[in-house]
Amino acid sequence: IKEIATSMETELNKISRTNVKENGEINCCLQELVSEIEKRHNRGGGITGISSGFKATDRATNGLNKQDFIILAARPSMGKTTVAIQMALNIALKEKKNVAFFSLEMSKTSLLGKIVSNLGLIEFGKLTKGEIDDNGFIKMTNAADKVTDLNLKIYEQTNNISDIKMECKKLKMQNKLDIVFIDYLQRIVTDGKFQNDSSRVSYISGELKQIAKELDIPLICLSQLSRAPELRPNHKPELSDLRDSGSIEQDADIVMMLYRDAYYNEDTERPNIIDVFIDKNRQGEIGHLELAWKPEYCKVTDLAY
User: Computed over its alpha carbons, how large is the radius of gyration of the chain?
Assistant: First the structure.
């Protein structure tokens, strides 16, 4: 039934658009490219995609561009969910974009608690325990009001790749989808039978890339890393650490890996810094940048801020 429903969704999506067959001509596309670059030049430059809200990341990736399949990977407790939440909030709040967040690990209530803590600058621990004063209640109410005004949808039970695809297509047809976040890849469920986890993850990775291309949106998917960084002296993550399948690296347009020295070293001189290693970037440069982490508020910012 799901296969039939997915097929129907695909056909309906084709009907909803002007279905023009390609003829291989490049002149029209070339003119559009030159025109777009000219517009950016006249504006004084700028990124081509959606701003993540992090200036350093935007400079490196040129923004979050349509059809990009972006992997945000890390070992547990490195802050990848917090970074993803922050990016989603930045995009929904500042860019006024339609954001869909599929949370396959954390409940919607827990996720909203982090969001309220973030927007209200209320200590997350005190918020969850109800240990807030009158001023804290005012902050909480104001933050909740901000959340209701956001074009942000959070899903906690849509964990099958077919269901995720169908929901994204539905939102796109309603003009209510600009970017998708999924937390995280290894928790996505499939209906088919596979020989091993590697082939299953390969299939999921390919499907996610197809969603980004077909719906013409950036898709950011979080991913776990293997235990290999734990065995290295510096613990720095590498592309080969992507868990279960090499196809993740192959399918992804951008791979960003997170690392916190404080997790391994209590005496670190960089206690609240998240290192971001861009180890693959089809549209730009690879490299290293830093973000500031404020765990008490579930908040991540540019280091300068």
Answer: 20
- Cα–Cα dist 217/231, whole Å: 37
Catalytic residue among 3, 38, 95, 105: 105
The pLDDT tens digits along the chain (305 residues) read: 888 888 887 777 766 655 555 667 778 778 877 876 776 666 555 778 899 999 888 888 888 999 999 999 998 888 899 999 999 999 999 999 999 999 998 888 999 999 999 999 988 888 888 888 889 899 999 999 988 889 999 999 988 999 999 999 999 999 999 999 998 888 888 887 887 878 888 888 899 999 999 999 999 999 988 888 888 888 888 888 886 656 887 888 999 999 998 888 888 888 889 999 998 898 778 889 999 999 899 999 998 75
For 57, the token pair is 């990341």
Q: Residue 177: helix, strand or coil by DSSP?
A: coil
* Listed residue (228, 273, 280, 201) closest to 74, CA to CA: 228
Catalytic residue check, 105:
yes
The helix (run of H) or strand (run of E) holding residue 257 is: strand 254-259
